[in-house]
Each structure stands twice: as structure tokens, then as C-alpha cells.
Amino acid sequence: MSEFLHVRRGVAAVVLAMSIASPAAAGGKALACYQQVHQPAVYKTIHQQVVVRPGGVVHETIPARYGQVTEKVLIEPERVVARHIPAVTKTVHQTVMVRAKSVGWEWRHVHGKKTLCKVVHPAQYATRAHTVVVQPAQTVHQRIPARYAHRTRTVVIEPARTVARHVPPVVKTVARTVEVRPASAGWVQVSGKRRCN
Hints:
Shape: rod-shaped
Helix content: 10-25%
Largest sheet: 2 strands, antiparallel
């Protein structure tokens, strides 16, 4: 079709040139007649897929997870201590003989005269206090058991880690109007001599 229009344009140019160059020929016998035609541009809608966001690999950090654990801890270990128990005493009162019974001689005045007499001296007693041990002192070894307590602490259940996640591209379809054939103008020969008259 483009070759046809090209030829028609060439013919029209020659015809116009002749009519302009020879104005006296106007009104003469027509040999061939041409009409100018216009062809509009031809468009069509095409659908294309375009990438809105490219895909890739995203590295995502997952934080660590923590938890609470309760455990039994030793506060004071078992030990043995020595405990001194003093002696138990008491005071006892006892009568004791201070001087034993005895026989002796002594001077006395009998009827105004000095007389030597044989006399008996009785025993003499006294009460004396003294301390006695009821229970002797001793050392006792006592076992003291260990002491425990419960303590809660935070521990890592799962450590932090980085994972790679594939993100697919985001694609969408867009409609676009494109020109299939541009608009054109040309000359077409009118068939038949009667059409020229």
C-alpha cells in the first residue's frame, strides 16, 4: 500500500506541475483523473508486563528469645561446730570436826586454892561450804545442715539469627496504545473516463 501511495504521489506531482505550468490546458480533454485520499493513523492497544519492584534477597534479623528458669542454689554449706558446755556445780554444806575430843590438865582455883585438874575437852565441829561438780564440762560437736534458696534468672532459649528471605518481583500488566500505521495522504486514479468529465 505504501508503494501505491508513493506512486500516486509521484503521479499527482507531475499532474499538478503540468497544470500549473500550462494553465491554457485547463478545460481540455482529460486523459486521467486522480482524487486525493487521506488515511488516518491506525492504533492498537497492547498489554505489557512491567516490573514495579524488582525481586531480591532480604536478610531479616530474628531477635533472640529469652525465658526464666528457677534453680536451687547453695547459700551456706553443711558444717560442724564445736560447742563448749560448762560444768554444772553446786555448793554443799558439810559439818566437819575441827578439833577431836581430848583429855588434858589445867589449873583451876578450888576453894580458893590453886588446883591441878584433869579435864576432858569435847570435840569441836564446824559447818563448811564447798563446791562439788554435778556434771563435768564437755565439748559437743553439732552438725548444722546446709541452707538452700531458689533463684530465678534469665536465660537465652534461642539466640538471635539472620535468615535470608527471597522476595519475588512485583509485576503488573499495563495497557499501552501504539501507532501501528501513521496517517497518510495520497492520490488515487479515478477509473473510467466518464468520471473525469
